[in-house]
Structure of Protein-glutamate methylesterase/protein-glutamine glutaminase:
Amino acid sequence: MPAKVLVVDDSALIRSLLKDIIQADPELQWVGGAPDAYVARDLIKQHAPDVLTLDVEMPRMDGLTFLDKLMKGRPTPVVMVSSLTEKGSEATLRALELGAVDFVAKPRLGIAEGMQAYAEEIRAKLKAAARARGGQRRAAPTPCAALGPLLSTEKIIAIGASTGGTEAIKEVLLGLPPDCPGTVVTLHMPPGFTRSYAERLNRQTRLQVREAGDGDRILPGQVLIAPGDYHLWVERSGANYVARLNQAPAVNGHRPAVDVLFDSLARCAGRNLLAALLTGMGKDGARGLLNIRQAGGFTVAQDEASCVVYGMPREAVELGAVQQVLPLEAIAGALLLQARHSGGGNRV
Protein backbone atom coordinates (compact mmCIF):
# COMPACT_ATOMS: atom_id res chain seq x y z
CA MET A 1 0.00 0.00 0.00
CA PRO A 2 1.29 3.50 -0.79
CA ALA A 3 2.12 5.78 2.13
CA LYS A 4 -0.60 8.37 2.71
CA VAL A 5 0.76 11.93 2.77
CA LEU A 6 -0.88 15.08 4.13
CA VAL A 7 0.69 18.44 3.27
CA VAL A 8 0.28 21.29 5.77
CA ASP A 9 1.35 24.66 4.36
CA ASP A 10 -0.35 28.04 4.14
CA SER A 11 0.97 28.60 0.60
CA ALA A 12 -1.41 27.28 -2.07
CA LEU A 13 1.51 27.26 -4.52
CA ILE A 14 3.64 25.05 -2.25
CA ARG A 15 0.71 22.72 -1.63
CA SER A 16 0.17 22.39 -5.38
CA LEU A 17 3.86 21.76 -6.05
CA LEU A 18 4.11 19.11 -3.35
CA LYS A 19 0.90 17.50 -4.60
CA ASP A 20 2.42 17.07 -8.06
CA ILE A 21 5.64 15.65 -6.60
CA ILE A 22 3.78 13.18 -4.40
CA GLN A 23 1.32 12.04 -7.05
CA ALA A 24 4.19 11.25 -9.45
CA ASP A 25 5.33 8.40 -7.16
CA PRO A 26 3.20 5.23 -6.98
CA GLU A 27 4.58 4.52 -3.49
CA LEU A 28 3.01 7.72 -2.17
CA GLN A 29 -0.64 8.76 -1.95
CA TRP A 30 -1.73 12.39 -1.65
CA VAL A 31 -4.66 12.59 0.79
CA GLY A 32 -4.99 16.35 1.07
CA GLY A 33 -3.50 19.75 1.66
CA ALA A 34 -4.23 21.93 4.70
CA PRO A 35 -3.63 25.70 4.85
CA ASP A 36 -3.46 25.73 8.66
CA ALA A 37 -3.32 23.52 11.73
CA TYR A 38 -7.08 23.44 12.29
CA VAL A 39 -7.84 22.10 8.83
CA ALA A 40 -4.93 19.70 9.25
CA ARG A 41 -6.42 18.37 12.49
CA ASP A 42 -9.68 17.51 10.72
CA LEU A 43 -7.90 15.90 7.76
CA ILE A 44 -5.75 13.79 10.10
CA LYS A 45 -8.88 12.45 11.77
CA GLN A 46 -10.44 11.77 8.36
CA HIS A 47 -7.51 10.17 6.54
CA ALA A 48 -5.07 8.91 9.25
CA PRO A 49 -2.00 9.83 7.12
CA ASP A 50 1.22 7.88 7.42
CA VAL A 51 3.35 11.03 7.16
CA LEU A 52 2.90 14.82 7.12
CA THR A 53 4.87 17.66 5.63
CA LEU A 54 4.67 20.70 7.86
CA ASP A 55 5.56 24.36 7.38
CA VAL A 56 6.81 26.38 10.35
CA GLU A 57 5.19 29.74 9.67
CA MET A 58 1.42 29.42 9.36
CA PRO A 59 -1.60 31.53 10.36
CA ARG A 60 -3.75 30.82 13.44
CA MET A 61 -1.25 28.32 14.89
CA ASP A 62 2.45 28.09 14.03
CA GLY A 63 3.96 24.81 12.93
CA LEU A 64 5.97 24.19 16.11
CA THR A 65 2.93 24.58 18.35
CA PHE A 66 0.96 22.25 16.11
CA LEU A 67 3.81 19.73 16.03
CA ASP A 68 4.03 19.74 19.82
CA LYS A 69 0.28 19.07 20.13
CA LEU A 70 0.40 16.38 17.42
CA MET A 71 3.24 14.46 19.08
CA LYS A 72 1.49 14.54 22.45
CA GLY A 73 -1.91 13.54 21.12
CA ARG A 74 -1.38 11.49 17.95
CA PRO A 75 2.31 10.89 17.15
CA THR A 76 2.78 10.83 13.38
CA PRO A 77 5.98 10.98 11.31
CA VAL A 78 6.57 14.57 10.16
CA VAL A 79 8.92 16.04 7.56
CA MET A 80 9.41 19.77 8.08
CA VAL A 81 9.54 22.08 5.05
CA SER A 82 11.85 24.88 6.12
CA SER A 83 13.40 28.05 4.76
CA LEU A 84 17.20 28.20 4.49
CA THR A 85 17.60 31.07 6.94
CA GLU A 86 19.04 31.38 10.43
CA LYS A 87 15.53 31.70 11.81
CA GLY A 88 14.38 28.79 9.69
CA SER A 89 17.24 26.56 10.82
CA GLU A 90 16.61 27.31 14.51
CA ALA A 91 12.92 26.48 14.10
CA THR A 92 13.76 23.28 12.23
CA LEU A 93 16.17 22.11 14.92
CA ARG A 94 13.49 22.77 17.51
CA ALA A 95 11.03 20.75 15.41
CA LEU A 96 13.45 17.82 15.37
CA GLU A 97 13.68 18.05 19.16
CA LEU A 98 9.88 17.94 19.32
CA GLY A 99 9.80 14.72 17.30
CA ALA A 100 9.90 15.57 13.58
CA VAL A 101 11.70 12.85 11.62
CA ASP A 102 13.43 14.97 8.97
CA PHE A 103 13.30 18.21 7.01
CA VAL A 104 13.65 19.56 3.49
CA ALA A 105 14.32 23.08 2.34
CA LYS A 106 11.58 25.19 0.81
CA PRO A 107 11.63 24.80 -2.99
CA ARG A 108 12.98 27.72 -5.00
CA LEU A 109 9.88 28.46 -7.01
CA GLY A 110 10.32 29.39 -10.65
CA ILE A 111 13.73 27.71 -10.93
CA ALA A 112 13.46 24.55 -13.03
CA GLU A 113 17.13 23.62 -12.62
CA GLY A 114 17.52 21.17 -9.79
CA MET A 115 13.77 20.62 -9.35
CA GLN A 116 13.99 16.96 -10.33
CA ALA A 117 16.64 16.30 -7.70
CA TYR A 118 14.56 18.26 -5.18
CA ALA A 119 11.48 16.18 -5.99
CA GLU A 120 13.46 12.95 -5.61
CA GLU A 121 14.79 14.12 -2.24
CA ILE A 122 11.30 14.92 -0.95
CA ARG A 123 9.87 11.62 -2.12
CA ALA A 124 12.74 9.63 -0.58
CA LYS A 125 12.39 11.43 2.75
CA LEU A 126 8.62 11.00 2.82
CA LYS A 127 8.91 7.26 2.19
CA ALA A 128 11.63 6.89 4.82
CA ALA A 129 9.63 8.94 7.33
CA ALA A 130 6.49 6.87 6.73
CA ARG A 131 8.49 3.80 7.82
CA ALA A 132 10.33 5.60 10.61
CA ARG A 133 9.85 5.58 14.34
CA GLY A 134 8.75 9.18 14.54
CA GLY A 135 7.40 11.14 17.45
CA GLN A 136 9.79 9.72 20.04
CA ARG A 137 11.07 12.06 22.74
CA ARG A 138 13.92 10.60 24.66
CA ALA A 139 14.86 11.39 28.22
CA ALA A 140 18.22 13.12 28.60
CA PRO A 141 21.00 10.57 29.21
CA THR A 142 23.02 10.45 32.39
CA PRO A 143 26.44 11.99 31.65
CA CYS A 144 29.34 9.57 31.91
CA ALA A 145 32.06 10.24 34.42
CA ALA A 146 35.28 12.01 33.50
CA LEU A 147 38.08 9.68 32.50
CA GLY A 148 40.94 11.35 34.34
CA PRO A 149 44.52 10.28 33.61
CA LEU A 150 43.45 7.03 31.91
CA LEU A 151 42.44 8.88 28.77
CA SER A 152 44.94 8.98 25.92
CA THR A 153 45.00 12.28 24.01
CA GLU A 154 45.72 10.24 20.89
CA LYS A 155 42.18 8.86 20.82
CA ILE A 156 39.58 10.27 18.43
CA ILE A 157 35.82 9.72 18.42
CA ALA A 158 34.08 9.82 15.03
CA ILE A 159 30.30 9.87 14.56
CA GLY A 160 28.25 9.61 11.38
CA ALA A 161 24.48 9.90 10.96
CA SER A 162 21.67 10.96 8.65
CA THR A 163 17.88 10.83 9.12
CA GLY A 164 17.12 11.15 12.83
CA GLY A 165 20.74 12.01 13.47
CA THR A 166 20.40 15.47 14.96
CA GLU A 167 18.84 14.14 18.15
CA ALA A 168 20.86 10.90 18.15
CA ILE A 169 24.16 12.79 17.96
CA LYS A 170 22.99 15.13 20.71
CA GLU A 171 22.23 12.16 22.98
CA VAL A 172 25.69 10.69 22.45
CA LEU A 173 27.39 14.04 23.09
CA LEU A 174 25.31 14.64 26.21
CA GLY A 175 26.80 11.44 27.58
CA LEU A 176 30.41 12.54 27.04
CA PRO A 177 32.45 14.34 29.73
CA PRO A 178 34.48 17.53 29.19
CA ASP A 179 37.72 15.53 28.96
CA CYS A 180 36.51 13.10 26.29
CA PRO A 181 38.63 12.43 23.20
CA GLY A 182 38.49 14.98 20.41
CA THR A 183 35.38 14.26 18.34
CA VAL A 184 34.51 14.73 14.67
CA VAL A 185 31.00 14.46 13.28
CA THR A 186 29.50 14.17 9.82
CA LEU A 187 25.73 14.57 9.54
CA HIS A 188 23.79 14.90 6.29
CA MET A 189 22.67 18.49 6.64
CA PRO A 190 22.56 21.34 4.10
CA PRO A 191 24.36 24.70 4.35
CA GLY A 192 22.75 27.12 6.75
CA PHE A 193 21.85 24.46 9.29
CA THR A 194 25.14 23.04 10.53
CA ARG A 195 26.31 26.28 12.15
CA SER A 196 23.04 26.66 14.07
CA TYR A 197 23.17 22.99 15.01
CA ALA A 198 26.74 23.27 16.32
CA GLU A 199 25.89 26.38 18.32
CA ARG A 200 22.88 24.63 19.80
CA LEU A 201 24.95 21.61 20.85
CA ASN A 202 27.59 23.92 22.30
CA ARG A 203 24.93 25.33 24.62
CA GLN A 204 23.34 21.98 25.48
CA THR A 205 26.38 19.77 26.15
CA ARG A 206 29.46 19.97 28.35
CA LEU A 207 31.69 20.03 25.27
CA GLN A 208 33.01 22.77 23.00
CA VAL A 209 31.12 22.26 19.75
CA ARG A 210 31.55 24.21 16.52
CA GLU A 211 31.57 23.87 12.76
CA ALA A 212 34.89 22.52 11.53
CA GLY A 213 37.27 24.89 9.81
CA ASP A 214 40.04 23.84 7.44
CA GLY A 215 43.17 23.21 9.51
CA ASP A 216 41.43 23.02 12.91
CA ARG A 217 43.24 20.81 15.41
CA ILE A 218 41.24 17.98 16.97
CA LEU A 219 41.53 18.40 20.73
CA PRO A 220 40.10 16.64 23.81
CA GLY A 221 36.76 18.01 24.90
CA GLN A 222 36.06 19.57 21.51
CA VAL A 223 33.64 18.54 18.76
CA LEU A 224 34.01 19.55 15.11
CA ILE A 225 30.99 19.18 12.83
CA ALA A 226 31.29 18.98 9.06
CA PRO A 227 29.80 22.15 7.50
CA GLY A 228 26.93 21.67 5.09
CA ASP A 229 28.11 21.18 1.49
CA TYR A 230 31.73 20.43 2.55
CA HIS A 231 33.39 17.06 2.99
CA LEU A 232 35.30 16.75 6.27
CA TRP A 233 38.31 14.49 6.54
CA VAL A 234 41.20 14.20 9.00
CA GLU A 235 44.93 13.98 8.45
CA ARG A 236 47.99 13.73 10.67
CA SER A 237 50.21 16.80 11.02
CA GLY A 238 53.21 15.95 13.16
CA ALA A 239 51.84 14.98 16.58
CA ASN A 240 48.44 16.49 15.81
CA TYR A 241 45.28 15.46 13.99
CA VAL A 242 43.79 18.25 11.90
CA ALA A 243 40.51 18.71 10.06
CA ARG A 244 40.41 19.36 6.33
CA LEU A 245 37.52 20.54 4.16
CA ASN A 246 36.79 20.48 0.46
CA GLN A 247 33.93 20.51 -2.03
CA ALA A 248 34.87 17.42 -4.02
CA PRO A 249 31.97 15.60 -5.70
CA ALA A 250 29.29 14.02 -3.53
CA VAL A 251 29.94 10.52 -2.22
CA ASN A 252 26.97 8.16 -1.84
CA GLY A 253 24.87 11.12 -2.94
CA HIS A 254 26.03 13.30 -0.04
CA ARG A 255 28.36 16.18 0.71
CA PRO A 256 29.40 15.94 3.49
CA ALA A 257 29.67 12.17 3.36
CA VAL A 258 30.35 9.92 6.33
CA ASP A 259 32.52 7.59 4.24
CA VAL A 260 34.91 10.47 3.46
CA LEU A 261 35.45 11.13 7.16
CA PHE A 262 35.67 7.46 8.16
CA ASP A 263 38.03 6.52 5.32
CA SER A 264 40.44 9.32 6.23
CA LEU A 265 40.47 8.28 9.89
CA ALA A 266 41.07 4.64 9.02
CA ARG A 267 44.22 5.78 7.21
CA CYS A 268 45.60 8.19 9.79
CA ALA A 269 44.21 7.14 13.19
CA GLY A 270 43.76 3.36 13.00
CA ARG A 271 43.81 1.83 16.48
CA ASN A 272 43.32 5.22 18.14
CA LEU A 273 39.87 5.56 16.59
CA LEU A 274 36.46 5.01 18.22
CA ALA A 275 33.70 5.24 15.59
CA ALA A 276 29.90 5.17 15.83
CA LEU A 277 27.41 4.95 12.97
CA LEU A 278 23.96 6.14 13.97
CA THR A 279 20.47 6.28 12.49
CA GLY A 280 20.15 7.21 8.83
CA MET A 281 18.74 6.39 5.42
CA GLY A 282 20.96 4.75 2.80
CA LYS A 283 24.40 3.18 3.08
CA ASP A 284 26.80 6.09 3.66
CA GLY A 285 29.39 5.29 6.33
CA ALA A 286 29.11 1.50 6.18
CA ARG A 287 32.14 0.94 3.96
CA GLY A 288 34.17 3.50 5.88
CA LEU A 289 33.28 1.82 9.18
CA LEU A 290 34.53 -1.48 7.77
CA ASN A 291 37.83 0.20 6.84
CA ILE A 292 38.10 1.52 10.40
CA ARG A 293 37.56 -1.94 11.88
CA GLN A 294 40.11 -3.46 9.52
CA ALA A 295 42.60 -0.75 10.56
CA GLY A 296 42.19 -1.76 14.22
CA GLY A 297 39.71 0.89 15.33
CA PHE A 298 36.70 0.25 17.56
CA THR A 299 33.33 0.29 15.77
CA VAL A 300 29.79 0.50 17.10
CA ALA A 301 26.39 0.90 15.43
CA GLN A 302 23.05 2.01 16.79
CA ASP A 303 20.53 -0.81 17.11
CA GLU A 304 17.35 -1.03 15.07
CA ALA A 305 14.99 -0.48 18.00
CA SER A 306 16.42 2.95 18.84
CA CYS A 307 16.99 4.15 15.24
CA VAL A 308 14.57 6.47 13.50
CA VAL A 309 15.69 4.83 10.24
CA TYR A 310 17.76 1.63 10.43
CA GLY A 311 19.45 2.04 7.07
CA MET A 312 23.08 3.02 7.49
CA PRO A 313 23.66 0.88 10.62
CA ARG A 314 22.06 -2.15 8.93
CA GLU A 315 24.38 -1.79 5.94
CA ALA A 316 27.38 -1.66 8.26
CA VAL A 317 26.26 -4.70 10.24
CA GLU A 318 25.70 -6.71 7.05
CA LEU A 319 29.20 -5.77 5.84
CA GLY A 320 30.75 -7.09 9.04
CA ALA A 321 31.96 -3.59 9.97
CA VAL A 322 30.49 -3.48 13.48
CA GLN A 323 31.95 -4.87 16.71
CA GLN A 324 29.05 -3.83 18.95
CA VAL A 325 25.40 -3.07 18.13
CA LEU A 326 23.94 -1.00 20.95
CA PRO A 327 20.88 1.06 21.88
CA LEU A 328 21.50 4.77 21.51
CA GLU A 329 21.68 5.43 25.24
CA ALA A 330 24.57 2.94 25.62
CA ILE A 331 26.82 4.28 22.87
CA ALA A 332 28.55 7.11 24.77
CA GLY A 333 29.46 4.73 27.59
CA ALA A 334 30.82 2.14 25.16
CA LEU A 335 33.01 4.73 23.44
CA LEU A 336 34.38 5.97 26.75
CA LEU A 337 35.02 2.46 28.05
CA GLN A 338 37.03 1.73 24.92
CA ALA A 339 38.90 5.04 25.29
CA ARG A 340 40.24 3.82 28.63
CA HIS A 341 42.14 1.05 26.86
CA SER A 342 45.53 2.14 25.63
CA GLY A 343 46.03 -0.87 23.40
CA GLY A 344 43.70 -0.02 20.52
CA GLY A 345 40.39 -0.93 19.04
CA ASN A 346 40.19 -4.71 19.10
CA ARG A 347 39.58 -4.91 22.83
CA VAL A 348 35.85 -5.20 23.61
About this structure: The longest strand covers residues 28-34. The chain has a mean pLDDT of 90.
